[in-house]
Amino acid sequence: MKKIIILLAIYIININILSAQDLTVKINNNETNIGTIKIPVFGNTNNDFASHNIEYSFELKGAVVKVAEVLGGNDFAFEETKPNFTLEEQQGGTYTLKVFSQKVKSNFEGKLFEVVLDIFPQIDFYYKNYFFIHITPTKLAIDEEEVAINAVSGTISINNIVTNQTYEEQFSHAFPNPFSYETVIFFSIEEETTLKLTIYNYIGETIQEIPKNDNVFHYILINAEREIIDFNEQYILNKGLYKIVLRPIKPLASIGTYKLLFQTKTKNHTLNISCLK
Fold it and tell me: CA angle, corner 229, sides to 224 and 232, nearest 5?
């Protein structure tokens, strides 16, 4: 556990930030492999103040934050109410957490608060049944006074991952009508599995589900044989931004490579995907 000594003109706060190696990460046994990272922040104060603001920034690689929660610690500031906070995502996987404390007890020593993050591990950081999640604290400030962070960054490895990992691929720009009646989609995989393709528009509305009937699945054939889905007019989309989500239907504990080909009259668009099935 690394310590940070903060000396301000009016009061003293001693902050302990856990290093990345000390963080606890749990992958819940559910269909989406949402995991939980808990980041406790400890400290003490010898004065009584009406309020103060804490800003804590960290870089997270190997996972995306889905839901955040900040819990009060040992009746330090938040008592029985949850603290007010905001979590902003910056470029490059950096997150800034701003916590506003309404009450502060005097002569307190213990956990200031705990950051609880529900995360979605990224498949790019998956290797040999392990996810590798890297977290690095980058900034700590109290009442806009920035202090040095003496915390070691590190990598957390997680094994025993449950299956049914969801892969998301976001179009980075507007393709000219990526689907038409001539569009075909190719999957190539070494093992048999089942996938469902969902297409969303830029505001998150479901546009198409392929196949539409949950009782009819598209099977990837053994020995990397190819099966082709021919789209008809019901799958034609207008020009725009779309997000494609591939979801395994049948849980299989292995990693595979998919080749996704979007074919229009003028151009082919290919995605090479490594995905936990």
Answer: 170
Cβ 137 vs Cβ 125: under 8 Å: no
Nearest in space to 32 (alpha carbons), one of 118, 158, 156, 135:
118
How far is CA 122 from each of CA 63, 93, 179, rounded to the nearest angstrom?
5, 12, 27
Phi first, then psi: give them for residue 233, nearest 5 degrees: -65, -20
pLDDT in tens, 196-238: 667 766 566 777 776 555 444 444 333 334 444 444 444 556 6
Three-class SS state of 214 = coil
- CATH number of the domain that residue 69 is part of: 2.60.40.740
Residue type, 46: N
Tokens of 230: 């021919």
Range of the domain at 92: 2-158
Last residue of a domain, one of 99, 130, 158: 158
Does residue 186 sit in the same domain as residue 271?
A: yes
Q: Which residues contact 179 (CB under 8 A, 6 or more apart)?
A: 199, 208, 231, 235, 236, 237, 262
Give the total number of structural domains in the chain. Answer: 2
Whose tokens are 């469902």? That residue is 196
pTM strictly above 0.85: no
- Alpha-carbon distance of 86 to 267, in angstroms, equals 43
- Examine the domain organization and report whether 8 and 94 are in the same domain: yes
